[in-house]
Amino acid sequence: MNPPLQTWIEQLRSGDVRTLARAISTVENRAPGWSELLKALFPHSGKARVLGLTGPPGAGKSTLVDQLARFYRKQKHTVGIVAVDPTSPYTGGAILGDRIRMQEHFSDPGIYIRSMATRGSLGGLARTTADVTTVLDASGRDLIMIETVGVGQDEVDIVRLADITILILVPGMGDDVQTIKAGIMEIADIFVINKSDRDGAENVEREIRSLQSLAIRNDGWTPPIVKTVASQGLGIDKLAGAISDYESYLQEKDLALTKSVENWQERLVEMLRDALLDKARGLMTDGDMARYAAEVAEHKRDPYSLVEEIAANLGKS
Amino acid sequence: MNPPLQTWIEQLRSGDVRTLARAISTVENRAPGWSELLKALFPHSGKARVLGLTGPPGAGKSTLVDQLARFYRKQKHTVGIVAVDPTSPYTGGAILGDRIRMQEHFSDPGIYIRSMATRGSLGGLARTTADVTTVLDASGRDLIMIETVGVGQDEVDIVRLADITILILVPGMGDDVQTIKAGIMEIADIFVINKSDRDGAENVEREIRSLQSLAIRNDGWTPPIVKTVASQGLGIDKLAGAISDYESYLQEKDLALTKSVENWQERLVEMLRDALLDKARGLMTDGDMARYAAEVAEHKRDPYSLVEEIAANLGKS
Question: Residue A28: what pLDDT?
Fold first, then answer.
């Protein structure tokens, strides 16, 4: 380990926010040294509690995350927030919102908010989010909240990174609650009905209960349903209570490590896929790719045999 | 090529719908023989026109696609529809809807509708959709429509498969139109404002125009804006006209092949990634993976160095 890296890590671990921001940018942008940095930081990670919060657009996720941050700050915990806003056609409001939120918390270095809006064309957002979480974790933050709009598989992959996953719903979703798939039912450790002062909160609760009766969790936990009105700070203490109940349950049943091993099995496969892709790209020039693509586009060559050939030759060179 | 495969392909190319359904299932489920089937079918593909249609939930995509199918059926074209409904927490209404649609068209073998609702954990839906499209194409369908809810990167990848991409918007989206990112502006070859009898259609049009003035397309095409009321069949002829205008433009400027080569460059990289992942998985037993994951979860080993090691060793065995 070279001295500058060591210095960097010492500054990061001392809580310096500018070093933290620089380290996160290095990892997020895959700037030179990102891999060495992560390797050096990894042994310092694993101490933070990681919450994943997801829900449909308009569920009030940001407000709820802010209120939770305030709650934990009062208990002197340091907080890191990763707000994931995939660059997608129909979302995008989060960026401006996050700037406003960052200003509001500007005076408190105990809350660090990072907005992630870019996404690689091969769906690397979940991996980058995981790496940014590792940096925040190694920097000594007590609590990390990953917040994302729950609209696709990438988002499900992102919340899977968390130790505890919270699904935020709102009254008035109509039939949408009925269409929540088994996948998300298995992932959610805690349900929140936010804006619960609105009509229909009981309907949402009934829907969740009836879906829960169909889903069997491996760990035997029955996810509680917590009602909040985040904009008025109502129910935040109950949510924090539910979070700590689940943590106690994991500890009691010795499930935290099992959950982490399962997550790492998936993440290692994804990391390996990315590493192999980099390797494959390194072995092929842009000219090769253009030539292959032209042959396939002109139907002179079938892409299935071609890809098999390239993959078979990969080890030989 | 073994005789049964040859027979299968002959039946498929003769237009037999049950063989088509079986071939699609084989490819979609990666059932034994899927790879050989695709290799054999690929040389027969490339003749169909492929339309990609995307838009937010509630934009009336299915109705519009049905109306287009009716329009092209009157012109004696055969039609294949791939309705992609990613298994995501907040969509899922399409399955029942598709069953109803399929019943409606049941008496006409000239329209074949396939609903795709599953998604691999590593985001392979775009690839499977591409493969299903190849089967439909090779089976001799004149026109293939890929319909997907435009909510994430996967969906953008799916509509990228198409020769012509149509973005469907509706009045009353509020600020959502403003948040349409440059990415989708570049992809859309034609804009549709559906439900254009509602208030606010002019607003949507103005928004699109002002976003268009910011986006520069490589091919020099200015995407037209077509107003429809799909539920009443209004504007469908104009949309078909816009589609054929764009096709003429591509032909005139000799751009169709360029577009196809660009798409194949991306697809080949994705296919290669999947092939390498399969290779990597084949080299590691479940026991290896579980052991590695446990070492990382216990922070005895950093995952970044581990993955580099595995990737480096891949060629050696």
Answer: 85
